[in-house]
Every structure is written in structure tokens, then in C-alpha cells.
Amino acid sequence: MAGDLGTARLISPEFAGRREESARLTGLFRAVAEGGVATVVIGGEAGVGKSRLVAEFTRGLGARVLLGGCVELGAEGLPFAPFVTALRDCAGEVPDESRRSLAPVLPVLGPPETGEDARWGLFEGVLALLGGMATARPVVLVVEDAHWADASSLDLIEFLVRNQSAVPGSMIVVTHRTEETRRGQPLRRLLTGLDRVPWTTRLPLGRLGRRAVVSQLRGILGREPDPLLAQEIHRRSEGNPLFVEALAETGTDGVPSSLEDLLLSTVDRLAPDPAQLVRVAAVASGPVRDATLGLVTGFGADRLSAALRVAVDASVLTVAGDAYVFRHALIGEAVYHGLLPGERVDLHARYAKALEDNESALAGLAHHRYEARDFPGALTAAFEAAWAARDALAYTEQFQLLERVLRLWEVVPDSAPLLGIDHLTLLEHAVEVALRAGEYARGERLATAALSEVDHAEGVRVAILLEQRARLRAQLGLPEALEDHRAAVRTAPDGHPARPYLLNSLAARLMDIPDPEAREVVREALAAARRSYDEVAEVQALITLAVLDARLGDLDAQLPRLARARALAEGMNTPRLRLRALHAESSLLQAFGRLDAAISTARAGLAVARETGLARGCGHEHAIDLVGALISSGDWDEALESAEHALELAPPPAHLAHLLCLKGFLALQRGDLDAASALVDRARELGGEGGAFTQGLLFLARLEADLALARDRPEEAREVVRQALTAPFILTSHRFTWPLLVLGARAGFTGPMPEPRVAGPVQRAWSLTFEAERSRSRAAWAEAVDAWEELGQPLRIAQAQYGLAEAALGAGDREAAETALRRAAGLTERLGARLLGDRLADLARRARIPVTTKQVPRFGLTPRESEILRLVADGLGNREIAERLFISAKTASVHVSNILGKLGVRNRVAAAATARRLGIVP
């Protein structure tokens, strides 16, 4: 993946994932600026971003910042080293009577004072110096890396903190590495003592979550990172910002040389037994228990226990349940890479022997046998582990194991009799699992390999492989997908049981393009399914027919058919079919403006995908449904959260492009044109000309045209519309065509325009908006406003109200214009729709109409927080809230913490009671 990195900036301009900690520091400083005092102790592992947090906090703070750091010299280094650095520019502010007292920290002042009281005079002198500075403006003293501080510096820190009340307007910030604290008894005693000082606050700095890592990578790379790359860097860095930067700079293979010294610094100080134990643990590649470590090291119980205690106390290993893991996985990688080849092989062989009788560790056994060069043993273990993974619905792991089996097949003689399966059958299994696991690119290569091996006289076998490759290619946005579908149908003989399945698959692809031929093919599929009594194929055909019929405009007649199809799929225990019915229903509900039902159905689809192990293979479709409906309903914060969560599924290119377009739409509407442009460019790279994003290309064109208009480039917008209107599916994709026509009219496009069907209230609202954009008449805009008001889509209402205000001003009706502007401004304020808000403000200014838009949510709660509060009141925990709303558990936890703070309560029970008492929730 290193090639995906391009030219990366080492340090991300994006300060990601520290909003809560930054707000905490800012809040404490606010009290200091008003005459209070505060000490903050920031603890975290090496590389977690303590210095970056301090730098971001102190930048432009409006305070006197004194920055000092300790160096890795300890007691042998310069006494008071951090204070010498922090106070070096303060010599001119020292009174004459204090010069000798302060000379130990300001050598330029001359020879220091000696005698029994000299130390006390120094401490009092530093305190007085800080007090003098604080009379002019707040002063912030920063002591970084206190784990390396000499004993004298620690004593001075403690003195200053305990006597800080004598220096109002002062703040002391101390940073330290948590992994070094165990070994530093003086520092540990200091921190324990400071905890008893009332104005001291501990601020632990943890690792970043995945979304913060993505934000950091976005800043480093200057573009939206590939989800698989982000996933791999997050996995290996475990959210440590320094490690993220190093991996982004050097690639995801191996341990960056820039980190090796940092990672191994603690390991190198270990005694022989703990060092050997750590080397053994590095070969485990994951959690390892005492018993296994004992077998592999050969240590007795007491010797093992003593070595483990040292390794844990040194913060090299940490306890994870009943096992041990490295404090950071990269430490284990660095240790492993330092082993000699012979050592690795020997230790892997010992692990393999230790795991031989452990049926729950088949995957680990396969790994260790492979690394120990026992290829036949690795082959059989990986094969057995693959089927165990299938039983656990762990399709990603099953696919990885089958890939290992395929690699070993080439080096192990007589693999077929050893496993009881031939190579082609193994390939066919891997292709099917690739579809379930969402491994589309690798699955497509395996399907092509299988087609090169199969005897083409076996028509049905060839047809099924062609159909599977077609689905894989469609997900990748490859135009060859449709031809594979057609070839599969041509290859299967009439009357064969597989034919209804193949016809259904072709019909579904034609429907997605969309192509009018879909109706003819699905009718043939339905007839074939009924002739062969194939209930699954019949339900598949009924879903496609329901969607095609609904697109003609009568959704209510099709919803019962989709509900029945969903129930039949559930009864037949075919989760992929059930998911397809849910996806079809949610997409149609959104297309017809029934947003609450669309959101609920999309969430149901995500839940089913998660429960059946198909989240990676199918979840992204339901995520797109959810995000689109949330955007239309005006829940933009939630939509953005859900989009970020969906990217964690590492969707295939076509769906990734669609998600990026949705994010780009939000960025554009919120006025971030540069971010929108970057997302558009990336989506265009990914979109292709076929597959699942075919209709989405019209959405991308809309976004490009809208972006051009926002940049006041109407001619560019007109060209985008002109090109998009040449698409062969422009008349059959009326759901996507109408918004494009509106943008064309807004941009002044005068070329020939199609006349798409108006199917349902949403398309009617778009058609009315199109007429209003063309005619600019007040009556047309009033009709458009009414249509969007009925649908309850706030952005579209606001846009139509803007058009109505312009038309009213043109007709000389200032009162009507003011009413429309006020209504639109209120909606844009709630949405955070800065792009439209700026246009509204400009129109109001030119018309000299005062418009006040600021709206304060009740009790300070955002719409998102109000929704989460309702779930809290219903008794849901953070994980349940996360699953319900398709966000991470950490995000849910942050929202709940914010809610508790705004309501002024201590726990969830009190929050629920307060919310009901105040009428926030029923």
C-alpha cells in the first residue's frame, strides 16, 4: 500500500481527535485569566501527542508562555534543566535583590548564592518571578517530559504547585510519559502528591480512534485517504499519532526506522530473562497466555512469573484479560524483526507444538506451522481453520485463510488428496467467500483464474463463475460486468435449475444501470423460477419487479410486495436476499420522500448485515441509504457521522465514490469548497463508467455543477450539465436526472433538455423547481415551496424560499420577500448551510431587509444530542446507541458526556429524569 501514500507531509496540519482535551485546557485557562490558578498534568505514552496538544493550546493564547523541557539525562544532567530553558529570557525582570537567589536557573545572573537557605531562596524567587509576570497578563509555565526530570526540578515543581495560590493568573502544565512512571519513583510520588492539591487536574491523553486517524491522514496526504490504507495504518499504529505519521511517510510494510529506537528503548534495558520472554512473546503475533509462554520459553513457573512481572512493570507487556500483549503492537513487530532467521523458525516451531491440541487455535497453528516451514501441516491447519471461520460467520478471516491454502497448494505436493478437494473447487469456494467478505478485487482475480481452469463443456459451472465475476466486477465499477452477466445467461442451458438465478442476477444489473430490458429479463426469471419451484429465485424476481413498478410512480402498491419478500427471505434463512429487500425498500422510501421510514429501514438493513457477518460485503449499500435519507431530512451531523462509520467498512470503489459524493455535498453546503472539490476529484477517480455507481455519475455531475456555481463559474457548470445529459440512461434515471436539470436551469443552460417521467412527490417537487428556475416567476416558486414543505426537506425548502424571495422582490413585494427570507434563514442556520446562508445574507443586504437567523437549541442541546438523549431515556447503553445510530461506541460516549454536562447532571438516570421533567423527551 505504500504506493497509495504519494508525497506525504510528515506532520499533519490537521490536529485530530483532541477536541475534548483542548476544550478542557481552554476552560481551565479561562478561569486562570479571570484571576484563578490551575495545574494540569498531561500523561500519555510516547508519541501520543502531548507536545502537540500543548503547542496547539498555547498558540495565540494571549498569555506569557514559558516552555521548558527535560532531557534524557536524569540525575546526571543539569539541575533545574526545564526551568533554565523556560526562564532564559526573563533575566531582565529579576529584581537586584533576587539575582543571586535565581542564578541556578538563570546562569547569566552570575554566581549563585550558597548556604543552607539558598535552595529555599531559589524556590521563593521563582515563585515571586512568576507572580510579577502574572500581574501584567496570565502566565503559563510548561514543563515537558517530567519523567526525565532531575530530583531538584521535581521538588521545585511541587513547591510551585502547592504555593500557586499566591500567584493568581498562573497556570502550570506538566507532561509525562505514563510508561515511564512505573520506573520513576520520584515522579510517581510527585504525581500522587499533586493529586491532593485542589487546583490540579489530571488530563490523560489516550490513543486516537479510527476517525481521528483518518482526519490525521487526510491532513498528511492532502486528500481523502483510501479506506483500506486508513484501516491498515490505524491497525498498526493503534491510534498513536506519531506512529501514524511515520507509517504514512514510509508505508505500511515493516517498522519505520524512525521509530525503532523509540520502540526498543525500554526493551534494550531489560535483564536476560525478561528480554528472552519478550522475544518469545513477539513471535506469538497476538495475546499469549502464561501456559503457552511457559511451554515455549521452557521457564519454570517462578522464573516465568518473575520475568513477566519485570516486562509488565517496564510497560513492554501489558495484561489483557488472562493473557499478555505488547503495550503497543509495533513494539512486538520491532522485536520480531530483530530476531535472527533461525531464531524465528525455532520459536514458531515451538509455538506450533504448543498449539497442536488446541482446536480453538487452528488459525494460529496454521500461521506458526507456515513460519516454521512446515508447509503440509500449515496447509491442513489453514483449511480446517477456514471452515471453522465460516461457521462463526467470520467471512473476512475465512477468505484470508483460503488464500493461504491456495498459496500453499503450489508448494505442497499432492495437496488434493491431503485436503480431499481439487484446486478448481477450492477456487470456487474462495470466490463465493470473497463476495461475502467484500473482497472484490481479489475475488475478481480468483474468479478469472477459475474460469481459466474450468472445462468450458461444463456450461453451468462456467455460467456460475461468470455470474460471480460479474457481481465482483460491478462492485469494482468495471464495465465488463454486464457482458459477464449476459455471457452467464447464454452459457446456462434452458431448463437448468441455475437459470432463474442467473436471469435474476442479470435483471438486477440492468435495473441498476438502469436499462428498460430489465423488465423483460426479470419476467423471464420469474417464469423460470415458478416452473422449477425455486422459491428463492421467485422472491428475487419479485423484489426486482416491485422496484421497477415502484419507479413508475405507485410506491404504495409495491411496499406490501417488498414486505412479503422480506418475510419470505427471513423464513427461508437467506440473509443476502433479506438484505436486498431491505435495501430496495429503503432506497424507494427515500426516493418518494418518506424519510423516517427510509432511515428506519436502512438501520434495519445495517443490523441484519452486522448480525449475519455480511457487514463488509453488504453493509455499505444500507449505509448509503441511511446517509442519503439523513441528509434529505436535515440531520447533517448524524449523516456525516454515519458516512465516516460507513467508510470503516472499506467499501468497494463504486460505493466509496458514492459515499465521498455524499460527504462532498455536505462540505459544499456548509461552505467548505476546497474539501468538497477534493472529494469530488477522488470520487471521479473511483466512479468509473459502470457498475453500482452508474446512476451515481449523475449525482457526481450535480455536485460538480453545484461546486462550479458556488465558485461563480456558470459556464463550467453548464458544460458539466451538457456532458451529463448525453448519458445513455438519462431518461430512465429520472430520480437522478431532475436535480441535474434544476442545476442546468440555474446555471443558464440553454441546450436541449430531456423530459423525464415524474414519479412520486419528490420528482414532482424537483419538476416544479425546474419550472421555477426557468421562469423565475413568483407563482412557480410558491408552488415549489409548497411541494417541498409537504415533503419536509429543509434544505430544499430554504432554496425554494430563496427563489421565492428573489421573485417577490422583482415584483416589488418586500413583505413577502422578507417572510421568505426569514423562513429560509432559520432553516439554513439550523442546518449549518453556510453556502445558501451567505446567498441569503447577500440578498437581504442588497434588499435592505434585516434578517436575524441565530437560533439557540433548547438547553443547548443539538438535534443530534436530543436524539441520543431520547435513547438514553429509553435505557439504551452506549453500544446499543451506537448500533442503533450507526456510529462508534466512542462517539456515542462523547455525545452522552456532552449531554450530561449541558443538563448539569452526573449520570444517565439523572439525565433521563431531567429530560422528562423539562419536557425534552416524552
Automatic annotation (TrEMBL):
Top-level taxonomic group: Bacteria
Keyword check for ATP-binding: yes
UniProt keyword terms in alphabetical order: ATP-binding, Nucleotide-binding
CDD domains: LuxR_C_like
Pfam family, one: AAA_16
HTH luxR-type domain location: 854-919
Keyword ATP-binding appears in the UniProt entry: yes
Cited PANTHER family: TESTICULAR SOLUBLE ADENYLYL CYCLASE, TRANSCRIPTIONAL ACTIVATOR DOMAIN
Name listed for the protein in its UniProt record: AAA family ATPase
Species this protein is from: Amycolatopsis cynarae
Lineage of source species: Bacteria, Bacillati, Actinomycetota, Actinomycetes, Pseudonocardiales
